[in-house]
Amino acid sequence: MVCAMEESEAVAAIVTGDAAGLAEALDVYATPLFAYCRSILPQAEAADVVEDTFVVARTKLDGLLAPARVGQWLQAVARNECFRRIIAVGGTPPPEPVTPVPGAILPDGLRGRIMKVCTDDTPAGRAHRTTVTHRSGQFGYDGFPKPVTVARPRRVSRVVVAAAAVVGAGAVFNGQVVGDGSNDTLVLAAGKHAGNLQGLGTQFTGITTIDEAAKANWTLTGGAILQSGQTLNVDGALTISGTASGGGTAVIESGATLMADGALSVTSVQFSGGTESLVLGSATSVTSTLSGFGIGDTIDLVKLVANGERFADGTLTLLSGSTQVAQLALAGNYTSNNFTLTSDGHGGTDIGFVAGAHAAMAQDFGLPQDATDWLPQHVPAESGGLLDATITCYLVISGHISSRFWAEAPYFSL
């Protein structure tokens, strides 16, 4: 057992991706962690869980309040991932406590895999860590992951949907769920716990509409295939873990969040006109057309830094300096001045929206960017890309209006 100071150093090394420190941490923690996972899962899956655990540690371990408990923290993360994998295929996790396999040896190549994914700071490497970490669930105030609860599964061998089927978070399907192709609806219900659904488009087929209930929290594991004519309505928080593809449409309802961990290539993603969020874990792999993006909406580019943009011919090009880092297809009448870029607070970039031609003048002069903040008689009107307006200006000194002057600008060019 390493001392508390050494454990603090191990935490710092894992969080920063320091290769030498990470190697020392693996010397101490990797084998016991594999022995624990091996008592729950077959060798290959146990190795994958150990790798994912260190990936999560790279992102989340800095929240641990007691560094001396780093070994317990790693086992708690691994335990959750082991249980998730068992539950996802309709199994029942073993009773606890679990006894680690004695004499377990790390598989060949596992150490190198962990070193590679935990020290890879390319955009692809960061996106992979974000995706894996998102699957790990919520963490408590002490920094420990909240335990995955084991619900009694309700096994269904085959469901034929003729109107609507409601799925609760504890349901486990071992067979096919088949719609009859006539306005069928699959409802992902809200509940005390988050839900997981695997096989949308493969195990779940022929269903016209998938409705996630308000305040629900669901993950579509293994990706999702939305068939042509199929609609996924997101009204809570929904994560697509893996690739989202197909000819269907995803609609984000007001106040809802859709997170796409991997490539996003469904035909379209629609913002419904409220305050919606689209979180892109792999912004460089998005080919879907985004529509309805407006005031209050956010597109979060996870772990992707952009500090410049331009919009032309339906494409928003995102830049880091002069280098193109991503492109998004947006349907609508936009200009480059309609978009704002700010930090998301987690190493990525939030794309926001400001409305109308007044947005450019607002940005230039520090005026309100939303037309609702202008006095009604002074809202600039667009005319062929120019402003046709009478603008009332105020000279402000030390926070007080000291004088007033006006100027008429029949054609104020942006």
Q: Quick gist of this model?
A:
Helix content is 24%, strand content 34%. With 414 residues, it is an alpha/beta fold.
Explain what you see:
The chain has helices at 4-16, 19-38, 43-60, 70-88, 110-119, 123-135, 358-365, and strands at residues 154-161, 164-167, 171-179, 185-188, 195-200, 204-205, 209-212, 217-225, 231-234, 237-241, 244-245, 249-252, 257-260, 268-271, 277-280, 289-291, 298-301, 308-312, 315-320, 323-331, 339-343, 349-353, 381-383, 386-397, 400-413. With 414 residues, it is α/β, with parallel strands linked by helices. The protein folds into 3 domains: 4-135, no CATH class; 154-353; 366-413, no CATH class. A 10-stranded mixed β-sheet has the order 2-4-7-9-12-14-16-20-19-18, with no helix packed on it. A hairpin with a 2-residue loop joins strand 24 (386-397) and strand 25 (400-413). The chain is globular, with a radius of gyration of 25 Å.
